[in-house]
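Task: sequence design from structure.
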């Protein structure tokens, strides 16, 4: 059994990683901003990515570190630098100081095109720090992650219930269920296989070529019980205006930000076939159709729809 240190373990992806690590029999030490309920197999460390003492306590003696924590959306683009770049630098420094060598870093497909958004630029910069760290690293660039408890794709499911799913300009994307992503991250953390080291992987749900935006909209519609949905492609100018309106309505909790529009309007967020994780390490278990339906059912049970 290994001891895995996890950042971001109370978030959407991080909580799935924590559950998967425990299910595979690993011990877990997890960073959290607030006090957490006691849980068998988990040692909580109170702190955040700016707390060097907490990070040192987190990684000391760990067999591997899974760095999930980061900022994915904010109305203040400068905040990405602090959370995603400085935060990653602090994790690396703590690992080197404690002699912890194995790092699995969660990046984003947006790092492929850092000029499109401050978020993507911050993830690309963090990837550079990881690659220059001298650690035994593997970077994972997930596509759109969905599943129960996710709030980022929730609005698409809510909209589909009304029979309409507004889309960005034409393009395609890959998706992955949070549980499948968690299985990959934990598998990489426990792997001593040389082919996984100093590699960048882009996993997905196994659908070759990803999903066109319209295909994904229709699949979400079917997941919420609609035989068909109206899925218009919206021009960039309309999305920019919608982002401004969302900021006015929801303030700092706005989901559609100007920065997010920047990478949403790029036509290709499909995971690259030549960056698939090795089949001997991991393969997706949850198809998009199956996962979207189960997610919609969870939203309905919880009253989120």
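Answer:
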């Amino acid at each position: 059994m290994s001891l895995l240190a996890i950042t971001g373990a109370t978030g959407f992806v991080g909580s799935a990683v924590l559950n998967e690590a425990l299910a595979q029999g690993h011990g877990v030490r997890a960073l959290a901003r607030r006090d957490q309920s006691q849980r068998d197999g988990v040692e909580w460390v109170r702190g955040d990515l700016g707390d060097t003492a907490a990070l040192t306590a987190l990684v000391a003696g760990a067999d591997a570190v899974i760095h999930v924590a980061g900022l994915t959306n904010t109305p203040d683009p400068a905040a990405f630098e602090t959370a995603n770049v400085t935060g990653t630098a602090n994790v690396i420094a703590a690992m080197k100081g404690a002699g912890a060598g194995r790092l699995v870093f969660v990046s984003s497909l947006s790092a492929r095109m850092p000029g499109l958004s401050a978020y993507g630029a911050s993830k690309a910069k963090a990837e550079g720090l990881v690659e220059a760290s001298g650690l035994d690293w593997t970077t994972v660039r997930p596509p759109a992650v969905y599943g129960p408890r996710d709030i980022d794709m929730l609005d698409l499911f809510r909209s589909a219930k009304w029979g309409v799913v507004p889309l960005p300009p034409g393009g395609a994307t890959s998706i992955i269920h949070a549980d499948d992503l968690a299985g990959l991250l934990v598998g990489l953390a426990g792997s001593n296989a040389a082919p996984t080291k100093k590699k960048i992987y882009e996993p997905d749900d196994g659908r070759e070529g990803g999903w066109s935006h319209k295909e994904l909209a229709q699949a979400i519609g079917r997941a919420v019980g609609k035989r068909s949905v109206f899925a218009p492609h919206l021009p960039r100018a309309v999305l920019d205006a919608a982002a401004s309106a969302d900021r006015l309505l929801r303030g700092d909790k706005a989901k559609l930000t100007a920065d997010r529009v920047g990478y949403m309007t790029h036509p290709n967020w499909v995971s690259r076939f030549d960056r698939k994780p090795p089949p001997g390490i991991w393969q997706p278990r949850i198809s998009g159709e199956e996962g979207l339906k189960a997610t919609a059912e969870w939203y309905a049970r919880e009253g989120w729809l």
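The longest strand covers residues 27-32.
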